[in-house]
Amino acid sequence: MARTLRSQAHPVTNGTMNSYSGLLIVNADDWGREPRTTSRILDCALRGAVSSVSAMVFMEDSERAAAMARESGIDAGLHLNFTTPFSAPNCSARLRERQHRLAAYLLRHSYARGVFHPGLVRSFEYVVAAQRDEFCRLYGAEPERLDGHHHMHLCANVLLGGLLPPGTLVRRHFSYEAREKATRNRLFRHFTDVMLARRHRVVDFFFSLPPLEPNRLQRIFSLATKHSVEVETHPASVEEYKFLTSKEIFRLTASVQLALPPALPTRKTSILQ
Prior knowledge:
With 273 residues, the protein is α/β, with parallel strands linked by helices. It has a single domain (5-263), classed as TIM Barrel (Alpha-Beta Barrel). The chain has helices at residues 35-47, 62-72, 93-106, 121-139, 156-160, 186-199, 214-223, 238-244, 248-252, and strands at residues 12-13, 16-17, 23-31, 52-55, 76-80, 145-148, 169-170, 205-208, 228-233. The strands form two sheets. The protein has a seven-stranded parallel β-sheet with strand order 7-6-5-4-3-9-8. It has a two-stranded antiparallel ribbon with strand order 1-2. The protein is globular and about 50 Å long.
């Protein structure tokens, strides 16, 4: 029988941890995007290979995914989506049009998300509010954590517009790894990290699951012995799904604590990277 990651969680009292010595969050993105993706994530969650999911709303499989999450006790946060067209039949034409307008801007060039667009303020407000309301309808509560499809929740219009509820757990930028070239915009990264730390809870380190090199993953998971670490995974990928349904992830995480995101301390974690 697969080891359940949830059994490794720190004890929680009133939303805060009694002791805090580091933890690891393995989060699966795109829950509810379409049936195949949802089913693969569900398989990983039931095996105990992921500790939480990021749910998309107004998508083809959003309704079914929400029902399964509530029935199975799967922890779900909101995966804000500005760039992939909504595919649910209950999505209004107005919402589709507003999202299309945002996608056209954000995908136009690589620096678009770092530039505040005053002409799109109302559209961003509308699309974020609609997704938060839909999450509430599907899951019966406001999301305790938020992240974004293609990481667009970190765009200037969302952060400067204060569209993410204060005090919630919000995904930060990827942490740099050893020998990685700093090719990303350092000024934008620093600005968003400061904004997040002032208003939200953030983990100390954030990485993607691939590349699936054992030495790399061991280094990442080892950080979780002393720090809070989130690892993003996409089980829709054949490679990632095979890894998550093997015994390797349990071998690599045997010495670290794994916890659900709401168990993170309420203090605002300092940005280390």
